[in-house]
From TrEMBL, chain A:
<dbReference type="GO" id="GO:0006865">
    <property type="term" value="P:amino acid transport"/>
</dbReference>
<feature type="domain" description="Receptor ligand binding region">
    <location>
        <begin position="47"/>
        <end position="389"/>
    </location>
</feature>
<keyword id="KW-0812">Transmembrane</keyword>
<dbReference type="InterPro" id="IPR001828">
    <property type="entry name" value="ANF_lig-bd_rcpt"/>
</dbReference>
<dbReference type="InterPro" id="IPR051010">
    <property type="entry name" value="BCAA_transport"/>
</dbReference>
<keyword id="KW-0029">Amino-acid transport</keyword>
<dbReference type="GO" id="GO:0016020">
    <property type="term" value="C:membrane"/>
</dbReference>
<keyword id="KW-0813">Transport</keyword>
<protein>
    <submittedName>
        <fullName>Amino acid ABC transporter substrate-binding protein</fullName>
    </submittedName>
</protein>
<dbReference type="Pfam" id="PF01094">
    <property type="entry name" value="ANF_receptor"/>
</dbReference>
<dbReference type="InterPro" id="IPR028082">
    <property type="entry name" value="Peripla_BP_I"/>
</dbReference>
<keyword id="KW-0472">Membrane</keyword>
<keyword id="KW-0732">Signal</keyword>
<keyword id="KW-1133">Transmembrane helix</keyword>
<dbReference type="InterPro" id="IPR000709">
    <property type="entry name" value="Leu_Ile_Val-bd"/>
</dbReference>
<feature type="signal peptide">
    <location>
        <begin position="1"/>
        <end position="25"/>
    </location>
</feature>
Amino acid sequence: MKLTHLAFAATLAGATALTAQSALADVKVGLLGGVSGPIAAMAPPMLDAAQLAFQQVNDQGGILGGQSIEAVVGDSACNPQNGVDSATKLVNVEQVIGLVGPHCSGAVLAVANSVSVPAGVTLLTPSGTSPEITGLQDNDTVMRTVPSDDYQGRALARALLERGTSKVAVAYLNNDYGTGLAESFKDEFEANGGAVAGYAAHEEGKASYRSNLAELSRGGADTLVIFDYGDGTGLTILRQALENGFFENFVGGDGMKSEAVINELGAENLTTFVASSPVGTASTSLDLFRDAFTNVGGDPDAIFVTTSYDAGFLMALAIEKAGGDKAGIATALREVSNGEGEPILPGEWEKAVGLIAEGTAIDYKGASGDLDFDENGDVPGAYALFEVSEDTFKSIGEIK
Amino acid sequence: MELIGLANYAVYMAIFIGIYAILALGLNIQWGFTGLFNAGIAGFFAVGAYASSVFTSPAADGRLGGYDLPIVVGWIGAMVCAALIAWPIGKVCLRFRSDYLAIATIGVAEIIRLVVKSEGWMTGGARGINNVPRPFGELPYFQSQLAYLALIIAVVGLVYFLVERQIKAPWGRMMRAIRDNEAAAAAMGKDIEQRRLEAFVFGAALMGLGGALFAHFNRSITPEAIDPMVATFLIWIMLILGGSGNNRGAILGVAVVWIIWSMSELVTDQLPQEYAIKAKYMRIFIIGLMLQLVLRFRPEGILPEPDYSNHEKKKKVPDANKASDASAAE
C-alpha cells in the first residue's frame, strides 16, 4: 500500500513539476502518432519525417519572428482510447496550436469528435484515409494530406478498364485502409461495366492465404487486385498467388508499391504486376524531400513519410500565415495550398516566410502531391500506375 | 499553461475514470464476487458500444442505423444486447473453470471483434460508426465535458448503489459461497450453473453500458477501440490493484491506474527528443511493474474485500480471523 502511494505521489509530483517547466517553450505543435500498438513499425519514420519539417523551420530562422517550433509527440496507439487521452493532454496541458496526426482513422474520428473540434484546434492527419473523415461535422478544422481511399480506388478502377481489363478478383485487408479502397474500387469498376468475379477480405498475419486465393480464382478472373501492404500480408498473398499460379496479372494499391515486394520476389517474377500510387505532379518536390530525409538517416520510401512531412511543413506554414492565431490556422491551411500563388517547395521555409511577410499568396507543392484542399479538407491526389522495371518501380502513366 | 486547459484535462480524466469504473464494476461482479475469469471484456464493451450507436445514430449508407432513438434507449438497449449475447456464451462457456474460462472468453471477444469488422451491413465494418449523438454535445468544449461528467457520475452512482445492494443481499452471499466453495454451496441446494450464468449476464450488461458511454463520448466507434490491451487487460489491472471483491476498491483502482497511465506520458515526454518514441513504452512498463508490486506486496489490492459476514453479525462476535487479517495487512 505504501509503495503504491509513493509511486502515485511521485508520478503526480513529477508530472506537475515537469510540465510547468515545459510551458516556457516556444510554438508547440502536437505530433500524434501510433507509436505503440498495431502500426508501431510504421510510425517512427512518419514521426521523423514530420520532425524533419520542423527542424528545417528552426534551421531557417524559426517561426513567427524567430521562435522555434517544437513538436510534442503523443502516443495514440492506433486506438480511440489512447488517441483521445493523448490529444486531450496535448491540447489542454501542452496547449499545442495545431495537431499533426493521429495516424489511424479510428483515432482521427474520436479525437476530432471529442477533442480537437470542440477545442477549435486544427487537425491535419497524414494517414487517416477512411472516407468517414470526409463527412465529419468539423467546422472545417479537420484536414488531411493523404487522399481518401475513395479517390484511389475509383481512379484505379477506371484505369484498369481503360487498359482493357474487365474481369478481376479483389483481395483486401480487413481494415479501414483495405475496405475503403476495395469498396470504392468495386463500386466504380462495376458501374463502368467491369465484372468483379471474386471479392473477399482477409485478416492480416496468417501464414497461408492459399485457400482464400483458391476461392477467389474460382470466379474465372485472371487478374487479382490486392489492397494490402507490400511489406506485410500483401507480400504473402502475392507470393502465394505467384507460386501456385492462381492468377496471371496482379494489381496493387499504394500499399503494395513497396520495395519489399521487389526485394523478396525478384523483379523477373513481377512482370505482370502493376501498382497505383499517389505521385507529386511537381516531382522536384519529391526529390527535395528524398534528399533531405536521406540526409537525416530516414528512408524516403517508407509508407506515409511524404504525407507526414507535408503535414508538418503545411502546419508550420499555416501557423506563420495565421500569425500564431489558433483559430485562424484552418483557414490559413487552405490559403497556403490552394493552387494559386508563388510555389513553395519542401524545405523552402525562408522563402515562404519572406513571401508571407510581403503579403504575397503562396502555394505549397508537397512531396506527396500538390495538396489543394477541397471543401471537405480532403486532397484529391494524383495517381500514377507503376510497373516493376530493373529492381525499382517505374511510372507508366498517370491515372485519373 | 492555462487553468481552463488543466480543468478540461481533469474533467476528461474523470469521464474516462467513470467509464472504466462501470467496466470494472461489471468485472467485479463476475470475478470479484463470483470467481468467473472473464478475459473477454472487450467483446461485451463492443456489443454495447455498437448497439447504442446503431440505435441512436442518424442513417448512413451501407449499415444499420437511422433509428434516431433517444440516448437513454440506446444505453438500455446496449445493456440488453450485451446481456442477450452473454447468455448463450455463458450457457456454453461457464462449464469451464478458471484458466479455461479465460481462454474461452478471450476467444469470444476475438470472435465479436471479427464479426464487428466483417459484417459491414450491421456495424459499418472497418469504417465504424460516426456521428453518434453525445448528450449536451452542442455546448462549448468545457461545458459539454462537464455536463457529460455529471451524467457519468449519476450513472456510476446508480450502478454502484445497485451493485452494492445486490451484493449485500442474500444473492451476494450466495455468490460468495459459490465462489469460495462450490461443493458446499451445491450441497446446500444452490443452483450453481444458474447463479454463475446470472452473474455473467449481469456483469456483461454493465460492460455493455460502459461501451455505450464510451461511444457517445467519442461520438464514434470503430473496431480499433476493441483493443484487448485497453479494453480488457487494463481493466483487469485496475480491479486487481484496487481490490477485487470490493466495489469501492474497483473504482479506486480505476482512478489510480488511469491517472498513472495518462499522466505518465507527461512525465516521459520530458525525456530528450531522441527517446521520445521509446519513452512511450515506459508507461506500459510502469503499469506492468505496478501490477507485479501489488501482487507481490498486497495481493488483496488497495482496498481488500470487506468482511461481509462480520458486518452482518453487526460486530457482536470479535472475529479472530479478521484480527489476523488486519495485522497481516499492516
